[in-house]
Every structure is written in C-alpha cells, then in structure tokens.
Amino acid sequence: MAIKKSELYSSLWASCDELRGGMDASQYKDYVLVLLFIKYISDKFTGQPFAPIQIPAGASFADMVALKGKSDIGDQINKHILQPLEKANKIRLKADFNDTALLGQGKEMVEKLGNLIAIFENPALDFSKNRADGDDILGDAYEFLMRHFATESGKSKGQFYTPAEVSRILAQVIGIHQAKTTPDTTVYDPTCGSGSLLLKVADAAPTPVTLYGQEMDEATSGLAQMNMVLHNNASALITQGNTLANPKHLDGAALKTFDYVVANPPFSDKRWSTGLTPDSDKFERFKGFGIPPTKQGDYAYLLHIIRSLKPQGKAACILPHGVLFRGNAEADIRKNLVRRGLIKGIIGLPANLFFGTGIPACIVVIDKQDAQARRGIFMVDASAAFMKDGPKNRLREQDIHRIVDAYSKQDGSDPTYARLVPLAEIEKNDFNLNLPRYLQSRQTEDRQDIEGHLRGGIPQADVDALQAYWATCPQLRATLFKSLRPGYLALAVDKAAIQTSIHQHPEFVAYTQRMAAHFDAWRSRTSQRLKKLKPGFKPKALIVELAEDLLAHYQGQPLLNAYDVYQRFMDLWASAWQDDAYLLAADGWKAATYRVIETKKGKDGKPGKQVDKGWACDLVPKATLVARYCAKEQALMNEMSAQLDAMTAQLAELEEEHGGDDGAFAELDKVNKAQVSARLKEIQRDADAQDEAAVLRQWLQLSDQEAQLKKTLKELDAHVDQLAHDQYPRLSEAEIQTLVVDDKWLTALDAAVRGELDRITQRLTQRVIELANRYDAPLPAVAKRADEQQARVDAHLARMGFTWN
C-alpha cells in the first residue's frame, strides 16, 4: 500500500524529535534533510548507470544502515557516504555527522544517529514505489519540513524559505503558465535560498524548463541543490556566491539574460554593496536608473533582475513595502522605472507573512514586453486577506486564487481591491506608488448616527447597506423592520426572534433550497466523474480541476462568496482527501483493513512492547461504513450513549447536592461503590441516619444502572465492530466508490457549504442585533433612567439622615 502524505510527514517530523533539544532547528534541519535526500536518491537511482544522480559504491542509504551501532558511525558517514556523493555529483551536503558538540560523544552519538537512521528504514518510506507520476510527494515533504524548520528557527534564521503560498503567486503573475515553454526556456532566481520559489515556477510551466539560481550562503545553496533533485530537477544549475558582487551566471563578460526571473532578496540589505563599486559597476545595472542608497539594497536587487531579463522577459520580486514610497535616491530610481514602463503590476501583501521579518511586503511585477507602450500599473491590495497560523500570518487558498485572478484578468471590478492606475495619476502623486493612495480601504467606518442616539430608531441608511440580503429576500426586510419616522426604523420582531425570523422566512427557506439544489447539480456530475478514477491518475491535477469547477459553479450566486466555498473545498483536500487520492492513485478502489500496532517507549527511551489498538481502514473509515451498513445498530448505540450520559449527570447532581460538610457523602474519602456500600452497611440500623441511607441507596442504584449500561454498550460496540470488519471483504468496487465519493467526500463538502449558508444567516442576525442594541436607548430614556436612579439614591440617603446636594 502506498504511504499517505500525512504519514510521510509525521515520520519525517519524528526524525526531528531525535535531534530537537541539543541544537537549533536551523542546525538539525541539515541532518534530517540530508538523510531524506540520501534515502530518496538511493531508492530511485541506485544501480542506474545514467541516472541524474550517481550513487558511488558504498555510499547508499543501505551502506549507512550498515554503520548503525559502530563506534565511529559519524566519521564513517562523513567519509564514506557524504564525501563520495558530493564528489560524484558536485553538490554540497552541509551536515557534519561527527560533530560532537551537536550530536554528543561516544554512545550518545551512536544511539542518536542509529535512531535517526532507523526512522528512515520504515518499509513504508520506499520512495521508489511511492511517487505518483507528476506528483512530487517527496518534494512536498521537503517543503513541509522547510516550513517547520523556518518556523522553529525564529526571526533571525528563517531566510532559507519563501512561503509556498507567496511563491505560487509569483509563479502565476509572471505568466509562465500561459506561455509556450520548451527546455530552452530559462528561469533565474538570483537569491534562490533553498530553491522553493524556482521550483514553484517550474511547476507552473506547461513543459519542463531550465532553472538557474545563485545563493550566497553555502549551507542554503546545498539545500537548494538537494531540493532540485527531490523535485526531479537535477539538471538545475545552482551556484554559490554573492549575486551582486560576484554574479556567477554570465554570458562572456556580461550578465546572462533569462526569460523569467523571480526573487525574494533579503529585505533592506545594508551590506549589498560589499565587494562592489556601484558607481563603476561593470555590468551597468544601475545605469540610467540611479544608484541605490548605501543602507537600502532593495533596488540594487531589483535592478540586477531587470538587467538579467531578456528584451521580452518578465520578472516578479518580493520587496518591503517601503520601496513604493521611500524618497531620495530610491524616489529617483522609482521614477525612472515608472517612466520606462517597466513596472507592470504591484501586489500588496499582508504583514508578518515571512519568517525573517514581520514587516509588510509587496510583489513588484516587471515586464519588458511592450514597456514603451505601457500606460498604467495594475495595483492589487491584498493586505487584509489572510489567516493566523501560530505567530505568523498565512495566505489561504482563496486569498492566493483571488490575487491571481484579479491580476491575470486585470479585473478592476472592485476598485477597493484592484485597478489599473494610469501613469498620469501616478505622476500627479510624484511617482509615489503607495497603494492606499490609489486603492481606497474596503473597511468603511461604522458611523454612529447622532439623531438615532438622541431620539432612538435604527438609521435607514444602515439597513439599506444590507442591500445584498434584501435583493435576495425582498420581503424579509419588512418582516424585520417597520417605519418609525422618516429616515429611521424600528424592529418589527423581538430581538430573541431575529434569527428564527430569518431562518423560517419563506424567501430565505426558498433561497436555501435553491442553494441545496445548486450544490446537488455539481455533486451529481462530480460524483460520476470521481467514480471513474483509475489507478495512476494525478491527484494534484484532479484537485485543480475539481476546485476550479466548483469555483466557477458558484461564481455570481447571491450572498455566497465563491472563494469561501472554494476555500472549504481546499481545506477538506488538505486535511483528508489528498491522502485518499494518493491511495487511490496507487492501489485503486480497495478498502483493506489492517491492525493498528502502537509501540510504547520503554523507560530507557528505546522501543518497548507493542500494543494492538484494533483495526482501521484508511480509504473507508469504520464510521463511514457503519453509517451505511449498520445504521440500526448505530442508532441503538447512540440512544444508549444518551441514556448513559443522562445517568452520569444524575450521579454528578446527586453527589453535588449532598456533597457538603453535612451531606450524605461527607464521611467518604472517595465516592465509589466500595465506600458507599461500606458506609450504608455501617448506618443501616441507625434511625437518625435514614435520610443519609436513602441518598446512598439512590446512588448505588444509579451506579448499578450506569455500570449495566456501560457493559451493554461495550458489548454492542464490539458487535458493531465485528459486523463492520466482516463487511469490508464483501464490498464490491461500486460499493467502495459510493462509500468514498458519496458518503465520505461529497457529504463532508455538502456540510461545509451549508456551513457557509449558516454564516450568511449569522452575519445578518448579528448586524441586526448590533443596530438594535446601538439605538435601543435614546438619550431621553437614558436621562430618565438616570433621574430615577438618582431619586432612589436620594431617598435612601434621606432615610439615613443625609441630604445630597
């Protein structure tokens, strides 16, 4: 059976636990990634004479396994595994497996490295068999690790990774996905880090392209080389060195030029000119634009990118937001760039997206094609659309899609989000490109109405602002509001009845029915399509096709945001469906059960005894099968569980009611059957303790009923468990398809879309209640209540002999 992505990720993250504690994530990442790399290339290329990566004799993962337990294991790995691989393939594997400061000495190092290698020995981690054509499972695992390493490394050491979500945006906005690419198409990243941005561009290209990159840090350059191999781009040319002072990709004495360039250079690099004399730069990168300020290197990298582009080339660069409005030398450079028409677009991103900094950033899109004819810059402000992810912000799938849609289509239908800004308008603003100058905030101020506060009543303008709801349900407005005086309304229903009035209104009921039918139409055709999947299909291609189809299906539907529905779909894919898809791509429609064996850790930290935790089936979970084939038994179990909960609650109430110092349970150390029975025996002949005895007998009766229910429920659960287990071998392929597609996948999506409909109701309900509460007490009413309270206070003081002046 193919390994699930989630299992692969957890296995790799477990390897980090072997090293965590003794070193920083920026250090132990080297060991984990090198092991992943060696295991992968050994599985894929051992014994292949013309493979893109050569495995010298004695330098495979199997040879590394043979070193487990040897006293000099670290030294042997360095000399006989890493060095031969580096020499044969001209790559740098930055990890010292004999570093006593990080790995410990003697027995500690031997055990730590042995345990680390053992994790990668897992038979399920056979990378020669667990890779669907066109889907980089290992590349995704590498990216998973890099994100976690960057997160754990903290603010100062996260520079080796560009968030995948941002990389995907850059890959799309340069338009490579629409180009007629060939292997001669070139893509360059002058500050490539671990290579994730380059690879996202390669992934977006219709055909294989040629990748070039340069990275200053030696260790990070090695990460990029490994990353290229893991993503099946072993031919990529990654060099190491200072891009500005010593660019390695040259065409004779000039800079090599490329079709596409993408970059995430270090923000505001204060050392950008080290080793470089800017005013006599032999590559003439600053000629005609101006020299960037000594302490701000952002435009130095951007001008290097422009110089590295072919005449029809396109580029996208991530820069701090300050490049859009800072003055002096940068203002002159910005003016020259705008006047030459080189900037095609600017995309503002949320703050705190990147691991190396919390400041907001932007994407500057450069396009030399038709630069002289360009008459505007397309601007997108996506700074407000994100989700919190621990200490960082993160772009959601819907945020990425909306940015790409707006930019690709040059869609200015929402001028608060995106529009084409004419160069004439920019010139009037002295070439300041700060987005708020051109895109007004979507967050309008919620104004307080003075007359509403003074005289009461909900301003009609606030109700008019909910026009999207009234356009869909015209009569609903009249149900919720009534006229109070010109320009002001009052609630027509009680506050407590607002949500019910919305839910039960005939127009809203009809709307939800239309939305249910709308989903059912998509569900019906998608169900048939999914049931036709055969082994070998490409899960990534499938999810793109389905998600795009769903997004298009919901475009233009009233009240529902199509991008919200799209996000629900992508969340389900990430949390569960992708594992199912990869299982189907490898094994087809097979629902095999397996035992779940958990290995406990011994006191010494080594693997201990194994515990059988029952059985499971990944593709068709037990709950899904039980719901269809054991529905009556499940209903009975649910009923008994409810009875058990009620019984347990009665016991808890009884113990709380009689649990004080004078209560029936006061003499007990613990309230359990043994102590309650003993106490009852002790007082059963005491005439003065009959009330206490009655409580204890009631407790015993309830406890016996609870115990009997638990026993019966356990027996029924075992019976259902056996029924379900026996059903799996009898399932036909068609039945498995129904269970997976209809009962598991599409039912979950249906519930998620219904959740979006519930959010619509909640938003309307909350706004109506908010407005009602805001203007519920006009000033005269407040003043009258204050006077009444003052009168009460004065009366109390008078009775006590005081006079309040």
Describe the overall structure.
InterPro entries: D12N6_MeTrfase_N, DNA_Adenine_Mtase, DNA_methylase_A-5, DNA_methylase_N6_adenine_CS, SAM-dependent_MTases_sf, T1MK-like_N_sf. Keywords: Coiled coil, Methyltransferase, Restriction system, S-adenosyl-L-methionine, Transferase. This protein is α/β, with parallel strands linked by helices and 805 residues long. It has 28 helices and 18 strands. The strands form 5 sheets. It has a 9-stranded mixed sheet with strand order 3-2-1-6-7-9-8-10-13, sandwiched between helices. Strands 14-16-15 form a 3-stranded antiparallel sheet. It has a two-stranded antiparallel sheet with strand order 4-5. 34% of the residues are buried.
Q: Residue share in helices?
A: 40-55%
Radius of gyration of CA atoms, rounded to a whole number: 34 Å
**Mean pLDDT, all residues:** 89
List low-pLDDT spans.
131-135
